[in-house]
């Protein structure tokens, strides 16, 4: 009998990925939902899954971390869904540490190798979102390794994913944090950060947008 965990986690994965793993064209089409603002997409997340980030942060979904696909679903709930649910708000980042803990455990257990490379990409994003240089280095290593695993025709997308990881790392190397988050997190910017943002520094689509978007 299929467990509740399996049913809900598979529902999340089916919703998020749709047919993105099927072909390069399908991946590019789905990326338009992931990485550009789509109010209808956001509303669907809110209607179907809006209560899950808080439940996950409260430990109700901890059992999901025990298997590759449900761990991936748990990471989506805490790393991706808040960025759709809480745009232009510091709450978009409220669950990042929780997502990172699940991602660290999942990679340690080798769960990423049991997933399609497109799925594994989202398993790695909590590393890319971390304001920590060691985790950024790990993000780059993981993303670069994925290029070799890319299915036929998808290598350009994975090269782009790796490039975005390197660009995130460069910002953390320079500032130790992401300056474009400062305003929504109530953090005062340094003069260097202000100058960086005023002169076209990276914002990856906005403070609470999909910072990983290629």
CATH fold type: Serine Threonine Protein Phosphatase 5, Tetratricopeptide repeat
**Could you give me the name of the CATH homologous superfamily?**
Tetratricopeptide repeat domain
In the CATH hierarchy, what is the architecture at level 2? Answer: Alpha Horseshoe
SS strand fraction: under 5%
Mean pLDDT: 93
Distance between the termini: 39 Å
Helix content: 55-70%
| H and E order | HHHHHHHHHHH
Number of domains: 1
| Major sheet description | none
Annotation, overall tally of beta strands: 0
Rg result: 17 Å
The shape is globular
Provide the CATH top-level class: Mainly Alpha
The number of helices is 11
The computed structural class is: mainly alpha
Describe this structure in words.
With 214 residues, the protein is mainly α. It has a single domain (4-198), classed as Tetratricopeptide repeat domain (Serine Threonine Protein Phosphatase 5, Tetratricopeptide repeat, Alpha Horseshoe), CATH 1.25.40.10. The protein is built from eleven helices and no strands.
Question: Helix and strand layout, with pairings?
Answer:
Elements: H1 4-17, H2 24-35, H3 39-49, H4 52-57, H5 68-85, H6 96-108, H7 117-128, H8 133-149, H9 155-175, H10 182-185, H11 191-198
Helix pairs in contact: 1-5, 3-5, 5-6, 5-7, 6-7, 7-8, 8-9
Top keywords for this entry?
11 helices, Serine Threonine Protein Phosphatase 5, Tetratricopeptide repeat, 214 residues, 0% strand
